[in-house]
Amino acid sequence: MLAHLWGALRELFPARRHKNVILGLIVVIAIVPLSEMAVAKLFSGMVIDGPELIRTDPQAVFVQIAIFFAAFIVARGMQHAARAYRVRAINTAFRDSDRAPSPSQQSWEWALAFELTGVLATLVQAAVFSLLFLVLDPLIGIVNLFVAGFVIALVASMFDRQLRIQREFAYTRAKPSSDSIALRVRTRVITGEQGAMIGSAALVLMLGALLWQVLAGEAPLDNAIVLFLGLRLMYGQLSNLSSGAMRFARALANRDKGLVGARRGQLPDVTIGYSSLSSRLEGIPDPASMRGAEVVVVAQTGGDQGPSESEQETIAALEDKGAAVTVLRSRGVAKSRNEVMRQATRKYLVFCDDDVTVDLDGISDVVAHMRDTGAALVLARAVDEDGNLRKKYTTRDRRLSLLTSGKAATYEMVVDMDQVKAQDVWFDERFGAGARLYLGDEYIFIADVMRAGMRAEAVPITIAMHPRESSGSRWATDEDLEARAAAVTRAWGSRAWLGRSLFAARHVRTFGPSGAVRFVRGPHGL
Q1: Cβ–Cβ < 8 Å for 337, 351
Q2: Are strands 456-465 and 377-383 parallel, antiparallel or unpaired?
Q3: How far is it, in rounded angstroms, from Cα 14 to Cα 94?
Q4: Could you tell me the end-to-end alpha-carbon distance of the chain, in angstroms, rounded to an integer?
Q5: Which residues fall within 8 angstroms of residue 448, CB to CB, at 6 or more apart?
Q6: Which of 13, 53, 92, 447 sits a CA distance of 20 to 30 A from 328?
């Protein structure tokens, strides 16, 4: 949650002076309750000592009353002034920005800015109150740190789940039926109330601890009154934090959806690279339908022979339509992918097969995401011919690792060619369909990208349709064990023993005990 808050702050207020103004307002809004606590301490002192003091020194009592009301007016005035000026500050920052959002996107950016400042102010308030409690009563302060930290961690977890739900609609571009709208509203409201209940339960716990301190004679009465009021204020704000965080999730998802929609259209910096056999080129779509994307086709003949006469005619037709076609007298999909990378002239490369149907809107969304994040490789989603997801995919943006990228398919990948070529990363041609080690080429490529220090991510965006078929039908055969062990060994490098052990432990039922042992031992002659 904190990463999303900081990211939204930087995106909405890129200029340092505007960002500093907003941060200053957040601090002012956050410290107002602290000033109110000082006022409350003045009031509690007057209530406790006032009856005795008014008989001995009436003038001192009237001075305290005057100071109390003056401090109260200043504290409340600071709060109202800061909240009112917040509108002006946000408007000034948006007006000075060189962005030109659509009316819908602008509306969500305003909502995002308000929820952002509200949530950040609540978190800063919690920090300020926690410091105050440590000063007034160290034991209560320490207990509060654990309790408040637990509440904030739970709210952050709820925020992550809610953001996934909201983004699911935005990224998949599902048409919201009445059920989906009800789901978004219901889950957001219910999640907010669940967080409020957690905050209330935490308040009860803290009040119990305070009461114990008072009854034990460990807390002075005036401090106890201030602590009571402070705990109510702080945990009341933490109860509201949940609702504010859920509204922030909604605004963030819808703002991002507006950004994605605004960026869709032509694909002037995209290459769509097809790897195919020369006998299957009829499946390549018309390059004119690709919204300005470059179309590169690498046709393999499967051996030393060249393409047949009919295949040459198909190649000529593709070239007449604008495709760049290269013929390789070889076999092995990794060789074809590498040739696609060599022939691509645009910044972003989408890998395709002749039986893949690309989702151009999805590709546009992924490219927009890569521009924003600087990712060198993105692993997106694919569906089958019935529109069902081909596997279990992530429901939120997630950094890839060696543990999460083993099931990658090439047609799910989009690559920033500037970064990849600069690091000299290519497919290992010993792996992949058509080679003896018939799988793992994608996994190894992703591992090499990450090993080179580049950013690789998975995002919940659909970019391709591919029919149901998989090389996994050879699972657990001797050939399969050898190929998978080799792929894991190549991907994990010096830690290959760990990768093979983890993989074997996960699939021991499929491999069988002896197969698992052979897998852990590793491949022969890699």
Answers
A1: yes
A2: parallel
A3: 10
A4: 44
A5: 425, 428
A6: 447
Give yes or no for residue 263 having a pLDDT over 60: no
Nearest to 233 by CA among 102, 491, 39: 39
Residue 273 and residue 349: Cα distance in Å, rounded? 7
Token couple for 324: 């760049």
Task: Give the separation between CA 184 and CA 257, rounded to whole angstroms.
Answer: 15
- Listed in order, strand segments (DSSP E) in 347-454 are 348-353, 357-358, 377-383, 398-399, 413-416
Return the H-helix or E-strand segment holding 270: strand 270-277
> Is-contact 370 407, C-beta < 8 A?
no
Torsion of CA 324, 329, 333, 339, to 10 degrees: -40
Copy the structure tokens of residue 205: 């716990």
Confidence of residue 178 (pLDDT cuts 50, 70, 90): very low
Sign of the Cα torsion 505, 506, 508, 514 reads: negative
Tokens of 515: 């197969």
pLDDT at 362 > cutoff 70: yes
User: Which residue is it, tokens 């000033």?
Assistant: 35
Q: What is the DSSP letter of 284?
A: S
Beta-carbon count within 10 A of 417 CB: 18
DSSP-derived 3-state class of residue 273 = strand
In whole angstroms, how far apart are CA 131 and each of 24, 28, 137, 230?
19, 16, 10, 11
What pLDDT score was predicted for residue 176?
A: 41
Report d(CA 233, CA 213) in Å as an integer. 19
Residue 472 has what pLDDT? 43
Percent of the chain whose pLDDT exceeds 70: 88
Domains of the chain: 2-263 (1.20.1560.10), 270-469 (3.90.550.10), 470-526 (no CATH)
Residue 256: CB atoms within 10 A of its CB come to 24
Report how far residue 51's alpha carbon sits from residue 53's, in angstroms, rounded to the nearest whole number: 6
